[in-house]
Design brief:
mainly alpha; Tetracycline Repressor, domain 2
Amino acid sequence: MSQPPPTRGRPRSAAVDTAVIETVLRLLEDGESVCGLSIERIAREAGVGKAAVYRRWAGKEALMIDVLRTLDEDQPELVGESVRDDLVALLEVMRRRGLAKRHSALLRTMIDQMKAQPRLWEEYHDTVVRGRREALCAVLRRGIATGEIRGDLDPELTADLFTGPMLVRAVLHERADLPEGLPEQIVDAVLAGVRPRP
């Protein structure tokens, strides 16, 4: 029985992958910009060789795309019984992400870099933003169908009304409070304006 040919090179180390990605996140948390990062510096601060980084990623943009992917957490389980409860659950994820320094630091970096790095911004949108936006709009469309939300409203615009206050606090006002109960306050305030008129 013939043996499979031996694989060439050393197997990829998950520890090196983690060290590099964690180093990028730490540098971004500390205020470094994407433009200010170099593969040489990342490798040095991660304690790995530059060649090890290039074996895994073709360049800084490819590395940053993988960094973005590591931050995408699972969507909350939406029960589907109450539009209000589902909206609160979605905004609670945003609140927790805003409390996490690395999430808010990365988001501010992406906003700063979106013109200079259009592909990176597109990847961030596709990886992190789009799925959450679609889930929120699906809840809003369900609310319109059940009569909990007015049918003359654009779900995309209505979604901005719910997410805007959280994003302003998490991104534009770095030291703004994100207290427990904030999602409920936002949802109740916006629902009061978008419910069907009597």
